[in-house]
Amino acid sequence: MKVFNQNRITRLFGIDYPLIQAGMVWASGWKLASAVSNAGGLGLIGAGSMYPDILRQHIVQCKAATSKPFGVNVPLMYPDIDKIMQIITDEKVPIVFTSAGNPKLWTAALKEKGITVVHVVSSSKFATKAAEAGCDAVVAEGFEAGGHNGREETTSMILIPTVRAVVDIPLIAAGGIATGRQMLAAMVLGADGVQVGSRFVCTPEASSHLNFKKAIVKATEGDTMLSLKKLMPVRLLKNHFAEEVRTAEAKGATEEELKQLLGRGRAKKGMFEGNLEEGELEIGQASALIHEIKPAAEIVVDMLREYSASLESGVWSLE
Question: What is the CATH number of domain 8-207+290-308?
Answer without folding.
Answer: 3.20.20.70
